[in-house]
Amino acid sequence: MSDVPTPTQSPQPSRANGGGGAAASRPTTPNATDAEVLARAQAGDHHAFAQLYALHKRRIYSLCLRMVGNVAEAEDLTQEAFLQLHRKIATFRGDSAFSTWLHRLAINVVLMQLRKKGLSLISLDEAMEPNPEEGPSRSFGAPDLTLTGTIDRLVLEHAIADLPAGYRLIFILHDVEGFEHNEIASMLDCSIGNSKSQLHKARLKLRDALRAQNRQEARP
């Protein structure tokens, strides 16, 4: 644990919204300097690893917090994700963006924790399985206008937190973190069509939850 740099203060979660507002702040294709830092970190340079940590820690923490809903647990999972990175960084070969690869490590850490807790949530694997009753798979992913209007942020946060784990993960990755479906497919070892379909299902569940909340508030 001592080999892994730690922040001077706990990172704060990014604000939730129904769109991909965080996309502009996330790392894009690495420039020469970023690639050099990554190469040094892979060679065992702890200062370079600290730079990678500083660059990516907030988004990894945000993902963990939204998935588990507990600050202390999210901090522990963030540290575990970077421990995994410290152990495995030399295996990164550049087949995908580094941020995509790192998120995949973090997602595995989070899903392992959810399974250990034995929560009665739909797992990622279950969410990815096609439902025979739904007929042939369709491709979704266009913006859902019912989720982009003015919605009470706290109500939306609660609705997101109540999503089954698999749906919540894809919704967070796409609509909150701003990843494209091809990146999500790479992270989760699924098809782009599955990513789009699960996002659509997540949005439908959110829409139903928000409508139910509105009906409840409208009661005299």
The CATH class of the largest domain is identified as Mainly Alpha
- Bin the strand percentage: under 5%
Mean pLDDT over all positions: 76
The biggest beta sheet is recorded as: none
Rg over alpha carbons: 18 Å
Task: Explain what this protein looks like in three dimensions.
With 220 residues, the chain is an all-alpha fold. The chain has two domains: 31-117, RNA polymerase sigma factor, region 2, helix turn helix motif (Rna Polymerase Sigma Factor, Chain: A, Orthogonal Bundle), CATH 1.10.1740; 124-218, Winged helix-like DNA-binding domain superfamily/Winged helix DNA-binding domain (Arc Repressor Mutant, subunit A). The chain contains nine helices and no strands. Helix 3 (71-88) crosses helix 4 (98-117). The longest helix is centred in the last third of the chain and has 27 residues, at 192-218. The radius of gyration is 18 Å and the shape is elongated. The termini are far apart. Residues 5-30 and 127-145 have low confidence and may be disordered.
Write the SSE topology.
Blueprint: H1 32-42, H2 46-68, H3 71-88, H4 98-117, H5 124-128, H6 153-161, H7 165-176, H8 181-188, H9 192-218
Helix pairs in contact: 1-2, 2-3, 2-4, 3-4, 4-8, 6-9, 7-9, 8-9
